[in-house]
Every structure is written in C-alpha cells, then in structure tokens.
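Researcher: Here's the sequence for the chain we discussed earlier.
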Amino acid sequence: MLSRREKLLVQPWEDRRYKDHRQKVRGARAAVDAAAPPARPHVALKLKKCQRERERRDKLCADNFSLLQRLAHVMAVNRLDNHWDRPLPEYVCITIAYYFICTVTTLARRNGLD
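Model: Thanks. This is the structure I predict for it:
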C-alpha cells in the first residue's frame, strides 16, 4: 500500500513513466536483422596473397624471358660446319675425303695457319 504522501508525490511520476513505456511498446515494430554484416574490404581482399601472386608472376616472366634469350642464342649460333665452301664432288665415294679436307682447311683458316 502506498501512503498518502507517496500517492500525491510519487504516483503521478510512476504513472507517467508507465504510460510512456506502454506507448513505446505499442509503437515498436517487430524486426529481425536478416541482412549480411557490412562488408570489410580490408578483410575480404587479402593484400599479402595478391602481393605473393604478383611476385610469383613476375618471377615466372623473368624466368621465361631468360629462357627465351638462351634459346634465341642457341638458335642463332651455328655450332656445326654444315655448309659447303667449295662445289660438291661428283662422286659419292669422294665425299668423305672431300669433307675431311674441307674441315681441315677451314680450321686452318680460322686459326690463321693458312
């Protein structure tokens, strides 16, 4: 039971608070947050992973370029003496001796012994 003093001084404030509370409850809407959480690009985009991938691609490009240069050098250099300086012999049996003589003379010319 409330005393007479409480009925006069405290009751009106409690009633007002209760009415305000009931008004808020009536105005409340049912809401369920079914939305996805806000995007966090600094978490979704893995910068270190992108950096490693870029470094891997750069290394592959550099390796491929050096391999291409080596293959171009191999293709440009003629390591075999596979051309005829003199006209071909008429007989097949002379070919071996002719090739040997041509090779010896070519080597002598290169070394300055001719």
